[in-house]
């Protein structure tokens, strides 16, 4: 039985009995027992455990978890203390340096954002070691699309940051006019100079939250 310890338990309880999820679960049992899969099984749902539906003010959508040893821990773009910053995360911090004068932090862990109401959600929640997108199309997208749709129904305004083609494809799920959708290129070195750098998404997000009488996110507080 999956438990998040917050309001996601009730909101998502029906999903875990559906055929797509039961098939996904059987697939993951085999994968975790025969291959090296990230993140560790107990970390798969950390994004939902750290950030309840009620508390979610900002959503950052990633693609799938980091596929290197010790990197992924259930929050998109985040790595645990002591782990070298992946290039995309370095570029996120560079953009924060431009927007807020933030210095490169000592750790790449983003639990501080999650605790403030930033849902750090990958669209696919598991991956084989060294094989990006290897669990794409196995059912995770049905679940994460449902999560986005539930957030779309939220009465309080939410900022959705969609970086790169995979995330931007989810814009069709965000139909509620009270929310703010911010789109740009992915922070990967392959595309960061094509629109991620200079996007000002963090400043724009906080401006929107303030205008809607919601507390800002301190993006310089990563842990």
Could you characterize the architecture of this molecule?
This protein is α/β, with parallel strands linked by helices and about 220 residues long. The protein contains eight helices and six strands. It has helices spanning about 10, 20-35, 45-50, 85-100, 110-115, 140-150, 165-170, 200-210; strands at about 35-40, 60, 120, 125-130, 160-165, 180-185. Strands 3-2-5-6 form a four-stranded parallel beta sheet. The longest helix has 16 residues, at about 20-35.
List keywords for this structure.
two-stranded antiparallel ribbon, 223 residues, alpha/beta
Strand order of the largest sheet: 3-2-5-6
Shape: globular
Rg, Å, rounded: 17 Å
Span of the ends, CA to CA: 29 Å
- Please state the structural category: alpha/beta
Q: How big a fraction of the residues is strand?
A: 5-15%
Average the pLDDT over all residues and give the rounded result: 96
**Number of helical segments?**
8
Q: State the order of secondary-structure elements, H for helix, E for strand.
A: HHEHEHHEEHEHEH
Poorly predicted regions are none
Helical proportion? 25-40%
Number of strands: 6
Classify the oligomer. Answer: single chain
The largest sheet is:
4 strands, parallel
List the helices and strands and how they pair.
Layout: H1 8-12, H2 19-34, E1 37-38, H3 46-50, E2 58-62, H4 87-100, H5 111-116, E3 118-122, E4 127-128, H6 140-152, E5 159-163, H7 165-168, E6 180-184, H8 201-211
Parallel strand pairs: 2-3, 2-5, 5-6
Antiparallel strand pairs: 1-4
């Amino acid at each position: 039985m999956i438990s998040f310890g917050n309001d996601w338990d009730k909101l998502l309880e029906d999903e875990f009995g559906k055929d797509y999820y039961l098939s996904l679960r059987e697939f993951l049992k085999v994968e975790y027992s025969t291959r090296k899969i990230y993140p560790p099984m107990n970390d798969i749902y950390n994004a939902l455990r750290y950030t309840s539906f009620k508390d979610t003010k900002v959503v950052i959508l990633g693609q799938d978890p980091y596929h290197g040893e010790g990197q992924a821990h259930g929050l998109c773009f985040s790595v645990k203390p002591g782990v070298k910053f992946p290039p995309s995360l370095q570029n996120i911090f560079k953009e924060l340096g431009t927007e807020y004068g933030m210095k490169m932090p000592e750790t790449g862990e983003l639990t501080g954002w999650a605790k403030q109401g930033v849902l750090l959600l990958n669209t696919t929640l598991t991956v084989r070691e060294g094989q990006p997108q290897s669990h794409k199309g196995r059912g995770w997208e049905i679940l994460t699309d449902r999560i986005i749709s539930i957030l779309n129904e939220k009465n309080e305004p939410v900022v959705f940051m969609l970086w790169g083609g995979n995330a931007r494809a989810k814009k069709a799920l965000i139909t509620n006019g009270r929310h703010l959708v911010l789109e740009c290129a992915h922070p990967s070195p392959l595309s960061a100079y094509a629109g991620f750098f200079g996007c000002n998404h963090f400043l724009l997000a906080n401006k929107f939250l303030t205008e809607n009488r919601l507390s800002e996110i301190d993006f310089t507080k990563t842990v």
